[in-house]
Amino acid sequence: MSFIPPTLLPVVFLVASNLFMTFAWYGHLKYPNKPLWMVILISWSIALVEYCLAVPANRYGFRIYSAAELKTMQEVITLAIFMVFSALYLKQPVTLNHLVGFAFIALGAFFIFKGPIRV
Predict the structure, then answer these.
(1) How far apart are CA 113 and CA 74, in angstroms?
(2) How far apart are CA 12 and CA 52, in angstroms?
(3) What string of H, E and C letters represents the secondary structure of 32-62?
(4) What does pTM read for this prediction?
């Protein structure tokens, strides 16, 4: 994977991982009449792919980023992907409340990556 810079490699894996996980967790909501056992099996199959991407993301990422930074990246990526997924796939509007909440989470991410605050 030398064509992707080491600082971006975990991000690429986390984005791909979160795409799969979002479909695993929420994709079935468009099919409320499908049997629960079926959507569980399909979701688990999709989640297996997600784990195959998330584990390397964290393994490679931990060489560069702290655990807190990796988790923060994962959460911000998850929310960004979910907002797009919710709007495009589930046809649910993104409201001002969602955007304000996301902005506060982004502010928290800023402080995680900013480094220690010296007092």
Answers:
(1) 13
(2) 13
(3) CCCCHHHHHHHHHHHHHHHHHHHHHHHHHHC
(4) 0.84
